[in-house]
Each structure stands twice: as C-alpha cells, then as structure tokens.
Amino acid sequence: MSDQTIDTLLDEERRFPPPPAFAAQANVHADVYDRPFEEFWEANGRERVSWFQPFGELCRWQPPYAQWYLGGKLNVAYNCVDRHVEAGLGDRVAYYWEGEPEGDRLTITYARLQRDVARMANVLGQLGVGKGTAVAIYMGMVPELPVAMLACARLGAPHTVVFGGFSADSLSDRMNDMGCEVLITQDEAWRRGGRVPLKRTADEAMAAAPGVRASVVVRRTGGEVPMTEGRDHWYHEVEASDDPATVPCAPMDSEDLLFLMYTSGTTAKPKGIVHTTAGYLVGVATTHWAIFDLKPESDVYWCAADIGWITGHSYIVYGPLCNAATSVLYEGTPDFPDKDRWWDIVERYGVTTLYTAPTAIRAHMKWGPEHAGRHDLSSLRLLGSVGEPINPEAWMWYHEHIGGERCPIVDTWWQTETGMVLITPLPGVTTTKPGSATKPFPGVRAAVLNEQGERVEQGGGYLVLERPWPAMTRGIYGDDERFRSTYWERFPGFYFAGDGARIDADGDFWLLGRVDDVMNVSGHRISTIEVESALVDHPKVAEAAVCGRSDATTGQAIVAYVTLKGNEGPSLEMLEELRNHVAHKIGAIAKPANIVFTPELPKTRSGKIMRRLLRDVAENRPLGDTTTLADASVVSELSQRAAEAP
Ligand code: PRX
C-alpha cells in the first residue's frame, strides 16, 4: 500500500455504529469480550459441536504448536450433516445451488446432502479410501464438491482441494507433496459460457503423480473426456448405496488431520497448511455464528468465494454446515451472462448475508450501481468483506449501493493459516470505520510490533498474534523448519502474520497489506518467487524479477521484469508466450499484467534483486534509495523501458 493510501485511511473519520434494531436482535453483545479466553473456547467447544467422546483438556500450547480439545472424539461430516437430520432438520435447505447455464438450479436439503455424502463415501470406500488415505479434489463449484469434502471427512480421509484454475503442474505438485492416492474431479467446468477442461488437466497431473491410483469423475458438462481403464471411474456409473447407515461416520481424534490447503509463501514451493479436526471446526462454527449473526432458521447466507480457497472451506462448507445454515452455492462469475447475476441471485433467494472480496466490490463499482439497482436487495441485512484491505471508497459503495445504508459491514481479516477470522467487527456491537477490520475476535489477542519487536500502542508496524486459537494451523505439512522460520522467528513468542497494520487511538486495527514477497491479486495470494521461477523455466528467459503494483480493481497486479537469453529480442509474441507459460505452469491467476524486457535487473552489490525498486518503477514513484545498487544506470534504463512497455 502506498504512503498516500495509508494517509487516506488515517484521515477516515466516518463512523457507523450498529443500527439499534440490529444490535437488539444480535447473537452476541459487548459482554462477549469480557469472557475469559479459556471459558469462551471451552463453552463454544461444547455448544457448537457434537462429540462422540467429550474432550478433556482445552488447549496444550507447546510453541509453535498448539493442540485443542484433547481427548475428544468427533466427526466433522456428522457435525455438518447427520446430526441436523437426526434433529429433525432434514427438510431444511443446506444449499441453493445456482449453476452457470441459465435455469440450472438445485435445492439441496440436509436430508439430500446426507444421502449424497453417503453415496460418495461408499464410492470412495470401494476404491479403498479409508481413515488416513489422502484424497485430492480438483473441481469447480458444483454440489459434488462439498459432497466430496464431506465424504472424505466422513471416512476420516484428509483432503486437499485444488482450485480449478490451477495448472496440471500445480495439481501434481500438491498431490505428490501430500501423497494423494485418489483424485476426485469432473469432466469440465462451465465458466463464462466456455468449458474448463478439468479432467484433461487432471490427466496431465496424474501422469506426473504416480501415487494417484484412482480417480472419480463427476459428469458436469457432458463433454467428451478420455477415461483410463482401471484408473478412472465415472461417478454416476459406480453402483453404490446412498443409505447413510451403510457408511458410518468415523470417530476421529480432535487432532486428526482434516485437510491441507496449499498457499503461496515467499519461496517457489507452496506450503501445505495443516488443519485438524476439532479446533478447526469449533473455530469456524463459532466465528461464522457470531460474525455473521447467523439465524439458521431464517437467514439465507451467501459467501461468493470459491471453495478452492480457505474462505470457501471455512465459510461455505464447514462453518455454515456445522451451524445448520442455509447457503447459496454458485458456479460461474459475477458478470456472466450479465453484470447483474449476483443481484439476481440475491433477489431470487432473499439472501440476507453476503460475504465477498474487495476486488469483487470494486469490479461492481466499475460496472456501475445500475445493475444492483434493477433488483430488490431489501432482504440483505449484513455484508462481509475478506481477502485484502478494503479501501474506504469501496466500503462506502458497498454500504450505499448494496447494503442500502442499513446493513452493517464486517471487514474480516484472516489467512489460510489462521483457519478462521481473527480480526473483525461484531455486527451488533462494533462501531465500524470504512477500511478498518477493527478488533480481534473474542478469545483472540492481536498486537502490532515495531521493527525491534516492541509493542506499538498506537501507530504502525507488524501484525502479530499473541496466543493460540482453535483453528490455527498445526504447521506446514512435512516442513517443521519452514513453519518455524516463516511465522515464529521474526518475533519470538508471537505468530508473525506477514501483514503490516496500524492501531488507532480507539485500539482499532487497520490492515496495510503484506510486508513480504507475497502479492495479493484479486484476493489471491501469489508469491513473487513462484512467478519468477515459472518465467525462468521458459527456455528463452535468462532472468526474471516480479513484483506487485497497485491496481484499482484487482488490488495488486503482477509486473515482471525479464532478461532474455543471448540474441533473443523482445516482441509482442514473446510477451504473450511468457504470459501463457506462467498460466501453464501455475494457473491463469498468476499471469503477469505487464512484462518489461530489460537487458539487466537492478541488483545490490551482493547480487540480490532490488524488488522494492522494481515496485517503485512499476508504480511510477520517485525511486527510493539506490546507493546499494551495483550499477545505477540500470534503473534509469529500466524506468525508460517500463514507460515504453507494450
Ligand atoms: O494480507 C492479508 C490478506 O490476505 C492474506 C491471507 O491470504 P489467504 O491466506 O489467501 O486468505 C485469504 C482469505 C482469508 C492476509 O495475510 N487479507 C485477508 N483478509 C484481509 C486481508 N487484508 C486486509 N483486510 C482483510 N480483511
């Protein structure tokens, strides 16, 4: 974030106290902050989740590893599905599913979800999936995606969901790292009227992941896809019972692995973030209930993220289902077939709660308020934001044009690693300020430290967390050393989130973006080094340096500086080829917005690429300190080329 943006944030003086009518009916009140931390998490552990065997010890903290709800036995799928049916809620809608092709809809009750999960679990069981078998899931936003996750959870098989926009390499890397034996995918996915060839990409990935011995393929578009005899199985062709009694919910230990979610760090290799059973479930259910003021009997809740990211895991699947909520699940994009798709969905289902990302809000802003204006959005009562800092302008637009100036907005800060929201307003309690995520959630303690590790009472610095919370990651899969050095060494005794933050005079937190080599493009985390290695993987590239520059819609956009080998000359064709190469290596989300060809990169005398300088060039800012630069003329040359870049 530029200094100018930070100043704008600090000048923000608008205040939005909770509307009195909202506050009066809210699930939680101000006294929630007074509850002792142990008592808060202990009570929520008992109230939000059903146990096959109650837990004995609340939390064992052996930094940097925490364990929660020790001694308990439970099953996540039982908590998310079966117990609701047993409680007589079988007819309640779990998901209103909206497919992309017009009119493609499905209403999935909890009773139906239970049968669907049982069937999927039986199919997986026939393929030898049981407790501890690692399963990869590579799908679009179809009902079978949450069903697949829940089926794994029912069997005690840990899953990793890989976002459908990722490449074959990204998929095979993840499957190999986790040791996946089975892959669940679909023929193709619909996107903007086109078809995304998931199975073909999965085939390429399986060729590079020899441990994967079987795949289950859900038919979505009906497109022709190759099937490998003996390995690939059409889901609809496998004979399997959908009677839940045929496939019991495996009793799991509180600390058994539930899933891995891979995310970008500051090296080229994504990290497998570990989430376990009980703490994760209690954490996401408690936050979902409190922050979204969930009234499961009457709310229609919609988190418009993709399940392939942590937001979807925690707040489309596990949190809402554990709370017996009715949610919307949608396939596609906000502007297809038209820019009012979301508002049409809100109106049709009477959505009460909408949770999305600033990048989406800014896209809607750009398209203009008339699209929302054509629909009745009066059912909305609460709005949420996640994924990146929300600029006050986008906050105000959301408040006025979507929230009709009556809906509180919860700006929720969290990460793949934190599993659950950690800094957020509580909608019936907190006076919100556009651009501030306000206060740590009850039972969570956050702080801002300066460069020396001293506490900043008011002002800017590094965001840290002071004590464990139930859904915190249990580490990076197979890489204890990286876990310690990434999060725990910078400020010993604290979890270092990698974000800059400020605390204001009221003790409210303002998030300022990443302070490391991680970019945030449309709310997606991408490492500069990951993109650099994809670029240098191209045979004609000698060297590459990547940075993020501010972008009005996507938050940040990727800029690459590339030095070509030998006699290769820059050209528009080369530019397209490199962009496509990155898409092929990582996924389309990682495609650089600009590529600047340069004969040399700015390096320090010790040979380190000066990324800060590259960012200044990318954002046309006056260049910072260049005294450590080996060859100062490189920079002026670079500015010149950046200005001329196609
Ligand atoms: O920089 C912060 C930003 O997103 C990062 C986490 O990304 P990821 O693990 O992909 O999870 C995204 C969804 C939880 C954080 O380090 N971020 C997330 N939410 C906010 C945010 N930045 C500012 N305000 C937020 N509300």
Automatic annotation (TrEMBL):
GO aspect biological process, one term: acetyl-CoA biosynthetic process from acetate
InterPro entries linked to this entry: Ac_CoA_lig, ACAS_N, AMP-bd_C, AMP-bd_C_sf, AMP-dep_synth/lig_dom, ANL_N_sf
Residue ranges occupied by any AMP-dependent synthetase/ligase domain in the UniProt entry: 88-476
Residues in AMP-binding enzyme C-terminal domain copies: 530-608
Annotated ranges, domain Acetyl-coenzyme A synthetase N-terminal: 38-80
Cellular component GO terms held in the UniProt record: cytosol
GO MF annotation terms: acetate-CoA ligase activity; AMP binding; ATP binding
Annotated PANTHER family: ACETYL-COENZYME A SYNTHETASE (PTHR24095), ACETYL-COENZYME A SYNTHETASE 1 (PTHR24095:SF14)
Record-given protein name: Acetate--CoA ligase
Species of origin: Gaiella occulta
